[in-house]
Amino acid sequence: MNAPMVLRTALHVVALLVLPPLLLGVINRVKSIVGGRRGPPLLQPYLDLAKLLRKGAVYSRTTTWVFRAGPVIGLAATASAGVLLSMGGAPAPIAFAGDFVLFAYLLGLGRFFTALAALDTGSSFEGMGAAREVTFASLAEPALFLCLLVLARATGSLSLSGMLGPDLDAAWSSAAPGLLLAAIGLFVVALAECSRIPVDDPNTHLELTMIHEVMVLDHGGPDLALILYGAAMKLFLFGALLSRLVLGHGAGALASEALFLLGVLAFAVAVGVVESVMARLRIVRVPQLLVGASVLSAFALVLLLR
């Protein structure tokens, strides 16, 4: 590995580890501004994580090693998925044909162990949240794969680095309607996968409406910090996907990096605006939203195949 590649990989890892909590700060600040409030500081999520890491953890005697392993494996799987995703103007540190399948299932692996840890508590309440989470994930997953297939068809690449590479800029000139539909579908998938409004509300504690939050009620201290950090990292990954899909590359490495960061921040602002102007959907309406995202993505694929 030569020096430029080492530097590029180091910057990739630093961005993946440092930036995710900032997105939560941007979303909270946008919601505060739209609501006419001053709101918390942008760096408040970092302070919250640091506070949780300083606390101790309490474990029920009914839980097993699965409960303790859930947050660790969830964060490790999400971070591994981040290594496959290209950011800025450089390809991902690890790229190969078909890596988009591994990317999707690494996110699925993290969700699986979070649900497993919830079931390990033996609580019917957390079991209800796990059931809701996996049900909605089974509807979001086809939409995600269809979006990725649209990118593969548009760019002729089966690697995430190729799908989000310079060929994508050229694809917009010939397949703009299909890519636009895929971007809308991917945004809906991002809201569902990251448990944001209108699918879920990360700040709610109403037991009849909780999905993701109910699964992590028994976690505290460092374990809860890992879960919150993993959720922020997942949000960052979807922001990176949409940033590269919509904005593409800039002229030169520095411009590409700046455009990428601008796109990720714009994604956080868009999530904040959606959460400010929309209410959470009724549970029975969520499947309809996710099926709609799949239909949009399928229609985008048909447009590219015709």
Features:
306 residues; mainly alpha; 12 helices
Describe the protein.
The protein is mainly alpha-helical. The chain is 73% helix and 0% strand. It is built from 12 helices and no strands. It is globular, with a radius of gyration of 19 Å.
Q: Total number of helical segments?
A: 12
Largest sheet: none
Q: What amount of the residues lies in strands?
A: under 5%
Helix content range: over 70%
Would you tell me the structural class of the helices and strands? Answer: mainly alpha
Order of helices and strands: HHHHHHHHHHHH
Global outline:
globular
Radius of gyration: 19 Å
**Gap between N and C termini:** 42 Å
Low-pLDDT windows of residues: none
Question: Based on DSSP secondary structure assignment, what is the total number of beta strands?
Answer: 0
Integer average pLDDT: 91
Short characterization:
This protein has helices spanning 3-18, 20-34, 44-54, 65-83, 99-120, 124-155, 160-163, 166-193, 212-215, 221-247, 253-277, 286-305.
Give a topology summary:
Layout: H1 3-18, H2 20-34, H3 44-54, H4 65-83, H5 99-120, H6 124-155, H7 160-163, H8 166-193, H9 212-215, H10 221-247, H11 253-277, H12 286-305
